[in-house]
Amino acid sequence: MKHNDLHLQLRAIVCCAFLIWMAAGAVQAEDLTATNPPAGSGVIMPSPVLTNAQQVHWLTRKEADTGKSVLIHGVITCALTGINAAVVQDATGGIYIDLWKLTNSGPPQVGELVAVQGFTDSGEFAPRVYAVQLTRLGVGNLPQAVHPYWDQLINGSLDTQFVEIEGVVTKVRGDGITLLTHDGKINVLIFGADGGTNGVALKPYEGALIRLRGCLFASWDMVTHEVDVSAFRMFAPSVTEVEPAPADVFSVTPKRVRNLLQFDPQASALRLVKVFGQILHERDGEYFAVDGTNGFRFIPKTAVNFRIGDLVEVVGFPSLTGPSPVLEEAMARKIIAPPLPDAHPLGVGALFRAENDATRVRVEAVLLNLSADRRTLELQVGLRRFVARLDGDAQTASPQTGEAKGLNFPLGSRLELTGVYAGHGGNRTTETEVTSFDLLLNSPADIRVLARPSFWTLQRLLFLVGALLAILGLALVWIRLLRHQVQQRSIQLQKEIHDREQAEYRHDLAQERTRIARDLHDDLGSSLTEITMLATAGPGLKLPPDEAAELLETIAGKSRTLIYALDEIVWAVDPESDTLASVARYLASYVEEYLAGLKVVCRVQIPNSFPSQAVTGQMRHHLYLAVKEILNNAIRHSGASEISFRVEVRENWLWISVADNGSGFDTSGHLDGHGLLNLRRRLEDLCGRCELESAPGAGTTVSLQLPLTDSNHPV
Predict the structure, then answer these.
(1) Residues sharing a CB contact under 8 Å with residue 397, sequence separation 6 or more, in sequence order
(2) The whole model's pTM is what?
């Protein structure tokens, strides 16, 4: 009882002293409001006085450098005797206190209740307090430890706060440990109170589930003041072993993979589980395995060497946040190597289900792209795409060079791929589909070509269309140039034709003039000479009336002959007589007049209308002479009493026939006569033909046939 009373009296005295000190400090702070000494001078800064750790933490670096006054009451949660510093935590949080200005104060102790008076500074990472006075108020109670979240551990927001962290020690280093927590792995740098590293002291806890309690310090870059997210620091933390490390990890009771997703009151991400499975694939140290129809992954703690198809038992810490369970910090060993399980086919509807993860599947897809190293394929099923990757160790050698080579399939091929499904995102526990997945292939034998791409790819079609357009463009240019050349050549030919026509016209005109001159000389000249001679015969002599009458009759006949010859010459050169109708009518009138003088019956038959066909003077002359020759032959040799003259137009041919009822003759022996040969030559000169039909006692028919040319050009 006496001891308890004494203790109560001492506590009452301490409390009274604390209240008196508080009042004196408040008065002193009010007296200092008129001055503002520089930071680091050792003098307490003027009001407003910061009275809790949170107010100090909320200062900017610039504000903290102004040396604001601080008066904080709290408990020492970390004593850094090696660097003469401590962490004081009140109800709002902890603050770093630099005690180097205190020369008469003894080293602080964790758990002491103190009052700190000083001024602020920006510090190396966060605002801190330079203490100018430290008053010990007795023994206090440590604050309730904060259980930080993952982001609070790595972003530095809990710097100098009293925390408690639970995790499994997966690795012990000289400067600290690696903890596997519920949120993931973190690195903790362990320091002693003197500031030296002391990670080896936790070596006995490797593999155990522990709780670290102490003051948390962020790690940062001394130049940029950025937080180093790879690790944080704790000084002289207390360690509580929650669950010791198992003596034999493989002695854990095994589970089926499907049971990991079922309710288990003892299940925890920090509790070891053991499963059995068959290795399907390995990628970057992560193994894909299957237990029956359920796939899972595991990441070995130490290097292992398993082959595809090995049956293994795996012990590790389960993570159920992905598309399939993942065992981290796993220990695995081989049991047997049975055949791989059959791959189950995946349709479009089941392509992105999380239950496919870490299982062996078979997919039919179209190849869209192939990477430069020919080990990554981009494929499409329906409207969905995914990536298939060939294991880096699965290489095939070229038989020619022996060098390793990758896959070589033409784009657009339809492939059947068998591999391990590696999903990204998704969660099987919440039935959330994966956002994407990779199909992991163990060897090129896992790919089978179902169909080669069509020759007409889009690229080739575009190339063909471009080539056709280029050819079409060149053809248009060539046609344009050719048209220009044709136009130039047409103009040149028209000029040449015109010149030739003019030359032919001049030549024909010259021939016609020559013919007219010859006819005038031969016919008219000789006849006129003969008439002159008859008229002047026996000058000065008087002829009897009978002889005079006969002479006059002869002169009259010769005159008529001259008139006919002159009329024929005028008709042949008259441009108004160059039509086919004019030719037919003139020849008909000539025949009628000629036969009328000889007392021979004449029958003429010509059409009422003719084509508008021009006939040259040369042709008219030859036709006239031909008809004249035919009539002459008929009168001289046949003894005909009736002659028929007929003109027809048959299919662009002009037919002129002269038929008599004379004695006729045998054509087999009289076709080479001089008259007939002249007729045929005349018609051949006009590109026509002459035909003769006759028989003894049946009369004779002579046909003249001439082709009719374009109406715009003369015959």
Answers:
(1) 403, 404, 405
(2) 0.52
CATH of 249-336, one of 3.40.30.10, 3.40.50.2000, 3.40.50.700, 2.40.50.140: 2.40.50.140
Task: Kindly report the backbone phi and psi dihedral angles of residue 413, in degrees, each rounded to the nearest multiple of 5, phi listed first.
Answer: -70, 145
Q: How confident is the model at residue 267 (pLDDT cuts 50, 70, 90)?
A: confident
CATH 2.40.50.200 matches 2-139 = yes
State how far the Cα of 527 lies from the Cα of 562, in Å rounded to an integer. Answer: 7
- Options 3.40.50.10540, 3.30.565.10, 1.20.140.10, 3.40.640.10; CATH for 575-707 is 3.30.565.10
Lowest mean pLDDT among 86-90, 166-170, 266-270, 352-356: 266-270
Phi, psi angles (nearest 5°) of residue 523:
-85, -60
- Among candidate residues 433, 351, 96, the one with its CA nearest the CA of residue 233: 96
Q: How far apart are CA 691 and CA 693, in angstroms?
A: 7
Q: CA 672, CA 670: separation in Å to the nearest integer?
A: 6
Helices 458-519, 545-573: inter-axial angle, 10-degree rounding: 160
Tell the burial category of 141 from Cβ atoms under 10 Å away from its Cβ (0-12, 13-18, 19+). exposed
d(CA 316, CA 302): 12
For residues 290 and 319, give the distance between their C-alpha atoms in angstroms, rounded to a whole number: 16
Specify which residues 647 forms β-bridges with: 656
- As a whole number of angstroms, the distance between CA 380 and CA 247 comes to 50
CB atoms within 10 A of CB 157: 16
Distance between the two ends of the chain, CA-based, in angstroms? Answer: 163
In the sheet that holds 642-649, the strands lie side by side as 601-605, 642-649, 653-660, 700-707, 689-694
Instruction: Flag whether pLDDT at 712 surpasses 50.
Output: no
Amino acid 493 reads: L
Question: What are the residue boundaries of the structural domains of the chain, listed by start?
Answer: 2-139, 150-243, 249-336, 344-451, 575-707
Give the helix/strand (H/E) hosting 214.
strand 209-220
Task: Look at residues 181, 197, 327, 319 and name the one whose alpha carbon lies nearest to residue 252.
Answer: 327
Query: At 398, phi and psi to the nearest 5?
Result: -75, 130
Residues contacting 418, CB < 8 A, separation 6+: 343, 360, 361, 362, 441, 446, 447
Is the separation of the CB atoms in 116 and 134 below 8 Å?
Answer: yes
Q: Tokens 């526990």 sit at which residue?
A: 429
Task: Please state, in angstroms and rounded to a whole number, the distance separating the CA atoms of residues 505 and 495.
Answer: 15
Distance CA 164, CA 212 (A): 5
Q: For 67-116, write each residue's pLDDT tens digit.
A: 899 999 999 999 888 888 899 999 999 999 998 877 666 788 899 999 99
* Token pair belonging to 128: 């801190």
Distances (CA, A) of 409 to 368, 371, 377: 10, 11, 10
